[in-house]
Request: fold
Amino acid sequence: MSIQGCVKLTVPKDYGDWIFTISSIDGGIQKTNDLYLNKAPDSGYQSSIKIKMDYGSDKYMPSLFNQRFYFYTQSGKVYGSMLVNFKPHRKFRGNECGIEIQYKMNPTGSKNLELKRENVPDSNITNITGNRYALNAR
Reply:
């Protein structure tokens, strides 16, 4: 199972102001400050999250690092979490944007997202995938 087909990212095309939109396909998403992202919450999800940066603003940030999210997809059949690093414009790369996503998902419908440890029997921790996905987009 991969993050593709579960989460949709919309990123800016031009340098300057930018909007980063993340949404869960057939589910919900929420931003969090949780450090380990091991237990998806029961509620508080929304259809999408939009982060907007105006180039001239005193709160402007040229990139986002360590943005943490919980999500569910497939109408609650899959729960997951992800850590996103986003660099909207990299001038030295022809105005490409860069996205790095580290994620884990539980396809059993459980909100338990702890990674399964070898030789530790636990019926509540099954089939969780931890992956890293990097994307350069124009």
Summary: Confidence is low (pLDDT under 50) at residues 123-138. The chain has one domain: 7-137. The two ends are 26 Å apart (CA to CA).
